[in-house]
Amino acid sequence: GYLGRFSDPDRSLYKAFGLERAGMGKVMGPGVWWKGFKTTVLGGHRPGWPQGDVFQLAGTFLLRDSEIVAAHRPENSADAVDFEEFVACPAPRAEEPATPKAAGSA
């Protein structure tokens, strides 16, 4: 199916989806540094230069018939969702959307 992405310069969609603008601890805290260390030093990936508003946390949502059926709202800037697990997640028709585990979380 179609996986859409949106640009939202005035952050109205971020606000509507309950995505917060993070403080310094959620962008530069110990968990973020540790994930960066594992990715760059241990994983061999080179970091790029930040772009856009580094304090705006991203989110991942699965919509069905204009309803959120699964949601991932990150705890910090290093909290990434495993997309394959996310789209494979059973999508309940309940008040609270299913929340897949973040990539690398136990």
Task: Describe this protein's structure.
Strands 1-2 form a two-stranded antiparallel sheet. It starts with 11 loop residues before the first helix and ends in an 18-residue tail after the last helix. The model has no long low-confidence stretch (mean pLDDT 80). By secondary structure, it is an alpha+beta fold.
Which runs of at least 5 residues are low in confidence (pLDDT < 50)? Answer: none
Structural class: alpha+beta
Tally of contiguous helical segments: 4
Sequence of strands across the biggest β-sheet: 1-2
Would you tell me the overall average pLDDT? 80
N-to-C order of helices and strands: HHHEEH
Q: What Rg do the Cα atoms give?
A: 15 Å
Strand % is 5-15%
Distance between the termini: 29 Å
The biggest sheet amounts to:
2 strands, antiparallel
- How many individual β-strands? 2
| Helix content percent band | 25-40%
The best one-word shape is globular
